[in-house]
């Protein structure tokens, strides 16, 4: 009888533990909103899956920057992709946040991966009453910085 109770307790504990482990593909509610998302990661907060659209794209020497907007979080970030086979030049993607008067409030950056097809993203800047744009810049003077229009 004692062995049956021990086995039943072990099975019960395993069932409870397994119910707390998220399954692959499970989406969670976003954990931030607006300016509360500033400098937080879109994946870690759930904003990456909260109604995301690409609202602006800029290409600079086969390095692409996308302005990603999560309406579920009211936050934006830059996703960068290297579409070039030339990994000699270091480049960075930027997201910039502006107030209604056009004053730059804050900027975050992410390095464009060296590998062709590689991509990465920055942390977020948030708030629906701001304007955002993305840029691609290179280290050195080989190529000028290019930026999207504001959104």
Helix and strand arrangement:
Layout: H1 2-19, H2 42-45, E1 52-60, E2 63-70, E3 75-82, E4 91-98, E5 104-111, E6 119-121, E7 125-126, E8 131-138, E9 146-147
Antiparallel strand pairs: 1-2, 2-3, 3-6, 3-7, 4-5, 4-8, 8-9
If you had to describe this structure to a student in words, what would you say it looks like?
The protein is mainly beta and 151 residues long. Helices cover 15% and strands 37% of the residues. Strands 1, 2, 3, 6 and 7 form a five-stranded antiparallel β-sheet that branches. A hairpin with a 7-residue loop joins β8 and β9 (146-147). The longest helix is centred in the N-terminal third of the chain and has 18 residues, at 2-19. The protein starts with a helix and ends with a strand. Residues 1-26 have low confidence and may be disordered.
């Amino acid at each position: 009888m004692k062995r049956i109770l021990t086995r039943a307790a072990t099975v019960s504990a395993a069932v409870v533990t397994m119910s707390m482990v998220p399954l692959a593909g499970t989406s969670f509610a976003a954990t931030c909103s607006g300016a509360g998302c500033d400098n937080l990661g879109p994946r870690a907060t759930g904003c990456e899956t909260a109604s995301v659209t690409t609202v602006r794209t800029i290409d600079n020497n086969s390095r692409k920057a996308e302005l990603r907007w999560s309406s579920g979080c009211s936050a934006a970030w830059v996703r960068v992709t290297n579409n070039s086979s030339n990994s000699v030049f270091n480049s960075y993607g930027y997201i910039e946040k502006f107030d209604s008067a056009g004053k730059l409030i804050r900027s975050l950056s992410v390095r464009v991966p060296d590998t062709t097809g590689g991509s990465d993203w920055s942390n977020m800047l948030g708030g629906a009453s701001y304007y955002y744009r993305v840029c691609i810049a290179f280290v050195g003077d080989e190529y000028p910085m290019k930026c999207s229009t504001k959104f």
